[in-house]
Design a protein that fits this description.
Elements: E1 7-10, E2 19-22, H1 25-34, E3 39-41, H2 43-52, H3 62-72, H4 78-83, H5 85-110, H6 125-142, H7 152-168, H8 171-182, H9 192-220, H10 231-241, H11 248-279, H12 281-294, H13 300-303, H14 310-322, E4 331-333, E5 337-341, E6 344-348
Antiparallel strand pairs: 1-2, 3-4, 5-6
Length: 352
Amino acid sequence: MGKMGAVLRTKAAFWHSDILVVADPLALWHIDVKNPNDYVKSNLSRALVRRLMGESLVWAEGTEHKKLRAAFAPCFSFLKVREMESVVLKAADMLVGSMKNYIIAMQSKTSNKSLRSNPPIIMNLSGWTNKATLDVIGRVGFDFDFGLGESPEARELSRIWEEQARESATFAGFVGFLAMRAFPFLASLPIKAMEKQSAYKLYVRSIGSKIAGSKIARIQGEDDSKDDSDIISAFIRYSRKEGSEASVDKLLDHFTTFIQAGNDTTATSVNYALLTLAQHPEVQTHLRNELEDFGREPTFDDLHNKDVLKFLDAVTKESLRMFPVGAHSERVALKDDYCHYRSLSVLLMVVF
């Protein structure tokens, strides 16, 4: 490790070529930022993304990916994120209110006057945080209301996701993933476990189809210079600038991608942060004291001020460091390459 940095070579299953695991920040910058066209997504990654999300921003490579990033970038500019503040705060307030009502209802059911104290109420926070994050991405991304997880669409999405997660956690799901790395064509076969992975995408597309048509019709008669904050409108205008009509199929792929990427990933990050705080009560107490001493709800500007709520900033950054949204990304070197930065020297070779 002292000589090569955070880089190791490991064997792969089912006759697949050896895998080089790279965790050094400089090497990752060399691969993902400086030379992304020389390190493309693996066949397995693209096959899974196509099945789960379709041929969207995450699936695209090269010039197409660059153009799509440029098209969607205005939706996530500093000013646009600032405009999302009210939506995020509203979702958080609704979530807190809903959780309080649940606790009160559970306490009334379990209260026992013969006991000096009532038993504690145990809650699975993962289901609650998903409701809030889905609500936020639905409103700011697509102008769609999921009703804080209570709408029929939100309930069905939750059911499908849980079923898909259970299937992936089985031994068959684990072995299937290894087999697909060696034989990517398996991802396109009509296998029951694989079809369950597509169920979430198909249902999200059915929701998106209700929005796409009206958006296209509205934007067709508008000036392309208009600034849009929602993702669907941005893609429609991008397609017009490229001299083509927005494909509803492509539109739904992007809709599916941002619903999945903007919902479960954010909720998972929050859940891990809350779990780690619960495992370190002294840190949790320190953080609670800082927020109580602050005396009011932090604003967008407060959260971006390095001199305000310093401990909250540290907890957030450490949580994202320990539990990154994307823990790994598979890339394939198209040609032999040499990466040399400071003390790190690695020969990155074509593996297949």
